[in-house]
Write the structure tokens for this entry.
Amino acid sequence: MADRIDPGARVYAGALYAAARDAGRVHEVDRDLKALLAGIVENRSLLKAILNPAVPREAKGRILARVMEESDPLARNAVLVLADRGRLPLIADIASALSELAAAEDRILTVEVTTAVALDEAQVEALRRRLADAVGQDARVVTTVDPDIIGGLVLKARGVLLDASVRRRLEDIRRALVRTPLPVGSEA
């Protein structure tokens, strides 16, 4: 997740986070950006309007001001600045980056876990506890299933990848075999 966020979005999110932190409203701003994204996803007309380059920036700003009239003023103003600067396509990345910053403030580490088979609730909870103990923070575990990893698991958190999958181990063995010189002639 973290490695896919546009660097420009991180700059906007950092500025918004600093303002929200100073105002003591990080969670409110985070909540309102998430609500805006959910509304955009649900309303195809809204999505088309704000991403359409033919729609003037001022019109996009008016639309978004109306959609966000009940939102926290910091969140609303940030979105209006994005509309004014033609940066609305970054809104999803900004929301993700802001959520990461808010989670870091709350000492919550989100870990993406990929396994070959689905984990049951007890396994996810046991993994969450072990991760929390290891990093000294609360851990939020997001699981996905990828049968191609064959077995084991792949952990990803804050851009760091730990690949303990069977597929990676087999690939390591294959590379070692390819690099190992074979004896020739009388050496065999």
